Amino acid sequence: MAGARHAKADTLALRRRLLSSSCRLFYPEAPVKMVRGQGQYLYDEQGAEYLDCVNNVAHVGHCHPLVVQAAHEQNQVLNTNSRYLHDNIVDYAQRLSETLPEQLCVFYFLNSGSEANDLALRLARQYTGHQDVVVLDHAYHGHLSSLIDISPYKFRDLDGQKEWVHVAPLPDTYRGPYREDHPNPAVAYANEVNRVVSSAQEKGRKIAAFFAESLPSVGGQIVPPAGYFSLVAQHIRRAGAVFVADEIQVGFGRVGKHFWAFQLQGEDFVPDIVTMGKSIGNGHPVACVATTHAVSRAFETTGVEYFNTFGGSPVSCAVGLAVLDVLEKEQLQARATCVGSFLMELLQQQKKKHPIIGDVRGVGLFIGVDLVKDEATRTPATEEAHYLVSRLKENYILLSTDGPGRNVLKFKPPMCFSRDNAQHMVARLDAILTDMEETLRSCETLRPQV
User: Fold this and answer.
1) pTM beyond 0.70, yes or no
2) Environment class of residue 236 by beta-carbon count within 10 Å: exposed (0-12), middle (13-18) or buried (19+)?
3) Are 134 and 197 in contact (CB under 8 A)?
4) Which of 93, 137, 142 has its CA nearest to residue 117?
5) What is the pLDDT along the chain (450 residues), one digit of tens a residue?
6) Which residues face 210 on adjacent strands?
């Protein structure tokens, strides 16, 4: 089962015949067929090794032996639903509770980040008695219909914005209305949320929740200014709403300094609901919602059971526990700080060398490199970013782009990513950018003079 059963061309032909074209491939012009993964590396059907700089789902490394072993051993004993008593689910909830503020002490287990955010929406509406949601521009919170409706990244290309959805500016200090030279961007962006809430209330709308990724990813690897969440929470709670922190892309130690990215906003900030997915199971379908007693009790008053067939199964919880064990034993949170800081330094050096790099931002192993056509106008270098990612793939380095302009290189590698990996990747990035610049200069030299 580990190897390739079909020639690559046959696999591609079968995929095109049997799967919808809306299920897209990375590198569609020249897809890669992967047959194995280990640590921070993926291997194609020819045995070529690729450095994975972007797969934050394989949080502690592809096919980590302790995670694989935990799933295998529990699968041999029992895998059933959570309606029976079992130690794994309560042990896992206890371990997660030890990483969170004490107010967040009730847990629901699910299978995906989309399920987690959908449940968070239900919890918020039941607790507040309100329906409307405030989200950040360019946000993405999942693929269910309820979440497409609160994801500007998606709904703008589909049915448009629903009347119960209200969009606040992304707190982007590089491209947004309040930039790095603003005296207090946290206050300015939080005031924008308050303006959105007030405008909705003037129309008779009632806000149930504010949803935000703790570090907006699809929006372009954004790091909100410190203090922004606390100020937003004040505005939101004054409107009778709750604050939902989406940690699906960035939780579990990725930011290095803290276990949860929302903790970057200060010790005084505690969300009402936290959603988890992707990295929580290292590739196994696990997700979780953590909330307060008050929110969970309001949900319970409906008398309607919450049941998820596979959520919280013994195998899923065994996997979740193993991921926490590996994070602790291999000190991967500290590694994210060390390697992430080193990678940021290397990329900042590249920024000084290559004008196409307009901004380098991030924390831990969550980093974005914003490519621009012009330093002054900050016009997104979309085509150049696409070309660069393709060239890196030719050099056996996997990277991708994000942001509204698809011009931000996103670095979210497995947490076992090393300093040597960082050096190797940046060296190849430097060589490709240098080659691009030399080609551009040659073209300008050959251009006829008018």
Assistant:
1) yes
2) buried
3) yes
4) 142
5) 456 689 999 999 999 999 999 999 999 999 999 999 999 999 999 999 999 999 999 999 999 999 999 999 999 999 999 999 999 999 999 999 999 999 999 999 999 999 999 999 999 999 999 999 999 999 999 999 999 999 999 999 898 999 999 999 999 999 999 999 999 999 999 999 999 999 999 999 999 999 999 999 999 999 999 999 999 999 999 999 999 999 999 999 999 999 999 999 999 999 999 999 999 999 999 999 999 999 999 999 999 999 999 999 999 999 999 999 999 999 999 999 999 999 999 999 999 999 999 999 999 999 999 999 999 999 999 999 999 999 999 999 999 999 999 999 999 999 999 999 999 999 999 999 999 998 877 765 545 454
6) 134, 243
Q: Helix, strand, coil proportions of the chain in percent (round to 5)? A: 40, 15, 45
415: closest CA among 319, 343, 336?
336
Q: How many CB atoms lie within 10 A of CB 9?
A: 9
- Residue 106 is classified by DSSP as E
Q: Single out the residue of 126, 159, 134 nearest to residue 145, CA to CA.
A: 159
Q: Give yes or no for a contact between 260 and 98, defined as CB atoms under 8 angstroms apart.
A: no
- Structure tokens that stand for 165 in this block: 């959805």
Contact (CB, 8 A) for 11 and 4: yes
